[in-house]
Design brief:
- The complex is a heterodimer of chains A (257) and B (255).
- Chain A is of the alpha+beta class and 257 residues long.
- Chain A is built from eight helices and seven strands.
- Chain A folds into two domains: 112 residues, Ubiquitin-like (UB roll), CATH 3.10.20; 135 residues, Alpha-helical ferredoxin (Fumarate Reductase Iron-sulfur Protein, Chain B, domain 2), CATH 1.10.1060.
- Chain A has a five-stranded mixed sheet with strand order 2-1-5-3-4. A two-stranded antiparallel sheet of chain A has the order 6-7.
- In chain A, helix 2 runs antiparallel to helix 6, helix 3 packs antiparallel against helix 5 and helix 6 crosses helix 8.
- The radius of gyration of chain A is 21 Å and the shape is elongated.
- Chain B has 255 residues and is mostly helical.
- In chain B, helix 2 crosses helix 9, helix 6 crosses helix 8 and helix 8 runs antiparallel to helix 9.
- Chain B is globular.
- Chain B has a single domain, classed as Fumarate reductase/succinate dehydrogenase, transmembrane subunit (3 helical TM bundles of succinate and fumarate reductases).
- The chains are: A alpha+beta (257), B mainly alpha (255).
- At the A-B interface, strand 7, helix 2, helix 6, helix 7 and helix 8 of A face helix 1, helix 2, helix 4 and helix 8 of B.
- Bound molecules: protoporphyrin IX containing FE and FE2/S2 (inorganic) cluster.
- Protoporphyrin IX containing FE sits at the interface of chains B and A.
- The site of FE2/S2 (inorganic) cluster has 14 residues of chain A, from loops.
């Protein structure tokens, strides 16, 4: 283990949703290179509390990259400089002694800042509510392998299902668009046999709900680069294709009723 | 899910995947266009119309190298397209109207998406962003688009209407008109800059339209970047060669 010395942290502090907020500087004299970024913040917070100051508020939960709760714009990159890692998995060894590290919350109108670095991501829930599920009878457990799914299909659906809903795609997108999140949530159901019944209703509803909260995609690719799970832009193309299909199919079937 | 504190959304939708089209909708095409994804279809389709036009336009202009007779004959041919099924210049006007419509739609979609995107992040990042994937072309689409728009307006006033062509404009003498206009270095430079801007626009645009239209195929996806570079290069090289050829006296009016 080696220690990293004299880190200057420039952290966004904001007292509440209505506050204007400002950067404040903190010095971290020494931290282990094995510490995660969040552990470094813990150490700093402990000191702040001991000094009678208010701790920095940030989101975190599992701390192993699976829950999607942590966030943070670190030196202008969502989840920091390491690829395919959430902030909780980001190690301090990615930084050097005497570095200045700038930490900001996600910024999007759909993600209002609650306090300091914590934002409200429930706009994602609004998208899930209108179609990010399958309607299935919950009787006795069905036999395993009752529904055959080709291996490549299962793999692709799993790739989409990896999305942990952290919001890094929105945060990284110059337009504040949520196309990567929405397309992953749509794709992981639309590709599976169980998802077919509601496929077109789901796609139409989720895309249009996304529209109410977020910006539009200009295919920069920043979302894919920021995603801690490496969700592919191909899912956005798939969503754009399914949305078109769903507009035509839903129109036909609705005009029959 | 990553939500922390949820406040009830005022416009919460029904929690069922089947009840989508309850409210009365706009007419079908307007309904699609009212969404961001729908506007991107329109951007892509009108962009494809634009690419088709620019390619044919460039190939047609290569006749410049065959001399005034060939070139003016080609210009006249455009007016006589589909004659005698349709009267002279009717087809040309239909094509022109399609192009004008496409450009208006393209600009309207670009404008409204830009407004939407501004609203989606009203408070900018207060520290410097470090972009990983976005490139110069993708981040300057609006600027390259505006340069191309200004160029289109100038170009029409120059070689279609003739108002900006200088004193010697003669309708139907397409070859002479082109040479006269590009003989002015400032105009030639403007033509060159505008076409480079168009090339930058298409470097991102051609790649991007596959995504927007949902044309994704694991076997061909890796060629999208190459296709964009190829089309952009073809158009820039072809179009930029004309002002250079005139300035270098390779293409000139015989005296
Ligand atoms: C007349 C002025 C023009 C303006 C203001 C303009 C503006 C824009 C903007 C802002 C975008 C990006 C939109 C987005 O990603 O959300 C775009 C995309 C595009 N433009 Fe233009 N543009 C213009 C002319 C042209 C022309 C003449 C062509 C073709 C030769 C063209 C082809 C494209 C293509 C192919 C795309 C990509 C569409 C997509 O992402 O699906 N544009 N344009
Ligand atoms: S805290 Fe769970 S993903 Fe980072």
């Amino acid at each position: 283990m080696e220690a990293i010395q004299n880190i200057t942290l420039k952290v966004w502090r904001q007292d509440g949703p209505a506050d204007g907020g400002r950067f404040e500087n903190y010095n971290v004299p020494e931290i282990s290179d094995e510490a995660s970024f969040l552990e470094m913040l813990d150490v700093l917070n402990e000191r702040l509390i001991n000094e009678g100051k208010e701790a920095i508020v940030f989101d975190h939960d599992c701390r192993e990259g699976i829950c999607g709760t942590c966030s943070l714009m670190i030196n202008g990159q969502a989840h920091g400089p390491a690829r395919m890692t959430a902030t909780c998995q980001l190690h301090m060894r990615k930084f050097a002694s005497n570095d200045t590290i700038v930490v900001e919350p996600w910024r999007a109108s759909a993600f209002p800042i609650l306090k300091d670095l914590m934002v409200d991501r429930s706009a994602f829930d609004r998208i899930i509510e209108v179609g990010g599920f399958i309607t299935a009878p919950t009787g006795g457990a069905p036999d395993a392998n009752l529904i055959p799914i080709p291996k490549p299909v299962a793999d692709a659906a799993m790739d989409a299902a990896e999305c942990i809903g952290c919001g890094a795609c929105v945060a990284a997108c110059p337009n504040g668009a949520a196309n990567l999140f929405t397309s992953a949530k749509i794709a992981h159901l639309n590709m599976l046999p169980q998802g077919q019944a509601e496929r077109f209703a789901r796609t139409e509803a989720m895309v249009e709900k996304m529209d109410e909260h977020f910006g539009s995609c200009t295919n920069h690719g920043e979302c894919e680069a920021a995603c801690p799970k490496g969700i592919s832009l191909d899912f956005i193309a798939l969503m754009n294709q399914d949305y078109r299909k769903s507009k035509f199919k839903n129109r036909k079937s609705l005009s029959r009723t | 899910m990553a939500s922390t504190i949820s406040k009830p959304a005022p416009d919460r939708s029904p929690v069922t995947g089947t009840a989508t089209q309850k409210r009365k909708r706009k007419p079908f095409l307007l309904d699609i266009y009212s969404t961001a994804v729908g506007k991107k279809y329109v951007m892509a389709i009108t962009g494809i119309i634009g690419i088709g036009f620019v390619l044919v336009h460039m190939i047609g202009n290569l006749k410049m190298y065959l001399g005034p007779a060939e070139f003016d004959h080609y210009a006249e041919f455009l007016r006589e397209l589909l004659v005698p099924i349709l009267p002279r210049t009717v087809t040309l006007w239909l094509l022109r109207l399609t192009l004008i419509g496409a450009i208006l739609l393209h600009i309207h979609a670009a404008y409204s998406l830009t407004i939407l995107n501004r609203k989606a992040r009203p408070v900018k990042y207060q520290s410097e962003r470090d972009y990983v994937a976005a490139n110069f072309a993708s981040r300057t689409m609006r600027w390259s688009g505006i340069i191309v728009l200004l160029f289109i307006i100038w170009h029409l006033l120059d070689l279609t209407a003739g108002t900006l062509n200088g004193s010697g404009f003669v309708r139907g003498h397409a070859y002479e008109n082109v040479v006269n206009t590009l003989d002015r270095p400032a105009v030639a430079i403007f033509y060159i800059i505008a076409n480079i801007a168009l090339g930058i626009h298409l470097f991102h645009g051609v790649w991007s339209l596959f995504q927007s239209m949902g044309w994704s195929n694991p076997r061909f996806n890796k060629w999208r970047r190459e296709a964009a570079i190829g089309i952009a290069t073809l158009i820039v090289v072809g179009n930029v060669s004309f002002p250079i050829a005139v300035l270098a006296n390779i293409v000139k009016v015989k005296s």
